[in-house]
Amino acid sequence: MSKQQEKTRLVQAVHSAVNHYDKSKRKTVSQACEDLGLARSNYNRWRYSVQKNLSETGAAIVPPPKSRAPKKNGKALPADVRQRIWDMAQSGLYANPSQIGKALREEGASVSDNTVRNNLERAGLYGYRTVIGSDGKPTKKKVLLL
């Protein structure tokens, strides 16, 4: 049984105890919550969620809690800057992320070379490639992958 189903079951059990058909067996909300080992504040919160969900969707369940985490990373690069980085890398005019970062800063974008490098790596445009060194031996080198 999921947490939402368990919460809904507890709300229904308290409701049933409070609204028992036999008046002599009815309990107060506090007594019913105490019998079930449920804090009254939780019952009230869950009951409100059930009522709200019932009026919105027609389902009498406690919906999962909404995340309080931020919806967007405040430090994330805007999509247009990210696209500009990719376009500059694919143009063939720049040899490394630091040249792209310098060009972007001249255009007025506030980005570091590491941010450019990380975005290029995530996009698969920057990584290791085997190249032939000046001594004729193959070596791995980080380059723009075009």
From TrEMBL:
Residues 57-78 are annotated as: Disordered. This is Uncharacterized protein. It comes from Advenella faeciporci.
